[in-house]
């Protein structure tokens, strides 16, 4: 699928329109295969990104995220719910338990693993609440689920490790990062 968009470039009282075409990769198999062959390239790319101005990088990542995310149906994929460990808070557990008409104790016993320092995680991967690639508690979903893949948030450079962990499983992350290679003028070595 391709998405065309335009950006206005002002020059001498005239506005020229630059048409940019993005190819968006939707095949999970292709994404995983490509990710496997791009490990060294991506390691260099992360170092390239760390050298860029953080605010400008945030702006560019958010711009690309806004262009690419609407082209991808998360319910066609569901990989995040199939493979992520989800941290939750006590307030989120309270809300989900109430939404499921369960006591908090029953919710915790069935769905939560507790660690030290009040750490709580959903105790199953894939997530208990995933059915037919859809969240069965969508209106009560947890902050980590709502935010994923978190490309809209500031301080992108501080989350590069996590972003790249999901590069091979999230079509949004994969496509944003691949387009970011172009827009940040990253030099891909020809093999």
SS elements, strand count: 7
- Tell me the count of domains: 2
> Unreliable segments (pLDDT under 50, ≥5 consecutive)?
1-19
Helicity level: 40-55%
Largest beta sheet: what is the strand line-up?
3-5-4
| Alpha-carbon distance between the two ends | 27 Å
Characterise the protein shown here.
It is a single chain. The chain is an alpha+beta fold and 191 residues long. The protein is built from ten helices and seven strands. It folds into two domains: 24-78 and 149-183, no CATH class; 85-145, no CATH class. The strands form three sheets. The chain has a three-stranded antiparallel beta sheet with strand order 3-5-4.
Secondary-structure topology with pairs:
Blueprint (H helix, E strand, L loop, with lengths): L1 E10 L2 E10 L4 H10 L1 H12 L3 H15 L5 H4 L1 H5 L3 E2 L1 H10 L4 H8 E3 L5 E3 L7 E2 L2 E2 L7 H5 L12 H6 L5 H13 L8
Describe the structure using short key phrases.
191 residues; alpha+beta; three-stranded antiparallel beta sheet; two-stranded antiparallel ribbon; 10 helices; elongated; disordered N terminus
What's this, in brief?
The chain is α+β, with helices and mostly antiparallel strands. Helix content is 46%, strand content 17%.
């Amino acid at each position: 699928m391709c998405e065309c968009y335009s950006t206005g470039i002002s020059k001498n009282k005239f506005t020229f329109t630059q048409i940019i075409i993005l190819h968006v990769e939707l095949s999970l198999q292709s994404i995983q295969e490509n990710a496997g062959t791009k490990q060294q390239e991506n390691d260099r790319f992360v170092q390239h990104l760390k050298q860029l101005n953080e605010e400008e990088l945030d702006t560019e990542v958010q711009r690309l995220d806004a262009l690419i995310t609407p082209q991808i149906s998360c319910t066609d994929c569901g990989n995040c719910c199939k493979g992520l460990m989800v941290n939750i808070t006590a307030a989120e557990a309270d809300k989900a338990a109430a939404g499921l008409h369960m006591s908090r104790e029953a919710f915790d016993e069935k769905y939560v693993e507790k660690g030290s320092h009040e750490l709580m995680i959903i105790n199953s991967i894939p997530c208990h609440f995933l059915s037919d690639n859809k969240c069965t508690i969508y209106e009560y979903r947890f902050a980590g689920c709502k935010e994923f893949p978190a490309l809209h948030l500031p301080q992108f450079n501080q989350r590069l490790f996590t972003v790249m962990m999901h590069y091979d499983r999230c079509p949004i992350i994969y496509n944003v990062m691949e387009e970011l290679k172009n827009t940040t003028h990253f030099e891909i070595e020809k093999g």
